[in-house]
Amino acid sequence: MDVTNATRRSFLCTTGTALPAVLASAVAGTRGPTPDETGTPREQVERLSLQLAILEDANAIRGLHHAYGRCLDTGSHEELVSLFAEDAEVRFSGGRFIGRDQGIRRLYVDRLGQGVAGDKSGPVHGFLLDQTQEQDSIEVGPDRRSARARFHCLIHAGARLVSQGSLMEMACLQGQGTAEWWEGGVYENAYVRNGGTWKIWRLDYRPVWQADYALGWSHARPGDIGPFSRTYPEDPTGPDALIVESDEHRAHADVATFRYPHPVTRNLWEA
Questions:
Q1: Dihedral through CA 260, CA 85, CA 99, CA 245, nearest 10?
Q2: Which of 146, 136, 266, 158 is nearest to 212 (CA)?
Q3: Contacts by 103-111 with C-beta closer than 8 Å and gap 24+?
Q4: Do residues 124 and 116 touch, judged by C-beta distance below 8 A?
Q5: In this predicted model, which residue has the larger pLDDT, 158 or 59?
């Protein structure tokens, strides 16, 4: 048994036998019992213990996703890959990257890492990637072995345009020679717990919009976000498979599926 869970269970069992009776007498005659107050003291303790464990799971998943964001922002791609389960999958820009040590490593280390920093790991002078994660919705499975989550993100990115010649030097002196943009997107992820540790099992990032840093979203062009068109090994750092979407879905690509229940009606909605 996990030491933390054992300690929590021992504490709750010790206090739980007396506490429900005290609370029940204090509120007797004022209202009926809530669902959390029904059952024997042991059943109430078991229920509260599970609720606490699920809250701890959700917090661990939130921390895992924040660690992913920090690794991506700082160019720590090797550390980023280790956050995934062995049989994980990443869906990104119209492509599926399958397997932690195959497709996922190819995307982050070989494509994103080499394209920015060459063989260097860590932050790179002249490259900016800063993303904020917000509006998270986390659903932990009843067995606490799987979970799903959605995160909205806002990205501020920039890079110096590398080129030789006096014209580029002059452009840099005048504050030009850089590419800088905003991006908004949604992460729709799934997680698994292996050996007591939560890992990313499926990461599905959907960019919703991009825009020039200075001009803003109103000047964004529909074609700014281009999907992959070739797979590995034709593209040495490309995806294992392409995601083929219908024309109707492509026309509404800015609407990402929301698979979680409405907090009041509990109805599910999918795009």
A1: 10
A2: 158
A3: 103/232, 103/239, 103/240, 105/81, 106/232, 106/237, 106/238, 107/237, 107/239, 108/72, 108/77, 108/80, 108/81, 109/77, 109/78, 109/81, 110/236, 110/237, 111/237
A4: yes
A5: 59
Structure tokens that stand for 21 in this block? 């009776």
Distance CA 219, CA 212 (A): 7
d(CA 72, CA 83) in angstroms, rounded, equals: 12
Which domains does the chain show, CATH number per domain?
A: 3-24+35-251 (3.10.450.50)
What distance in Å separates the CA atoms of residue 50 and residue 17, rounded to the nearest whole number? 17
Task: Say if residue 90 is exposed, middle or buried (CB neighbours under 10 Å; 0-12, 13-18, 19+).
Answer: buried
Rounded average pLDDT over 218-238: 82
pLDDT, one tens digit per residue, over 79-127 is: 999 999 999 999 999 999 999 999 999 999 999 887 655 555 667 767 7
Residue with tokens 């994660």: 133
Under 8 Å CB-to-CB from 219, ≥6 apart: which residues? 211, 212
Percent of the chain exceeding pLDDT 70 equals 67
Q: How far apart are CA 121 and CA 48, in angstroms?
A: 44
Two structure tokens written together for 130: 């800063």
**35 DSSP 8-state letter:** G
Q: Which of 111-120, 188-197, 262-271 is most confident?
A: 188-197
Strand pairing category for 84-92 and 241-242: unpaired
Query: What phi and psi values does residue 201 have, to the nearest 5 degrees?
Result: -100, -40
Q: What is the mean pLDDT of the chain?
A: 78
pTM exceeds cut of 0.85: no
Q: Which two tokens stand for residue 24?
A: 């029940």
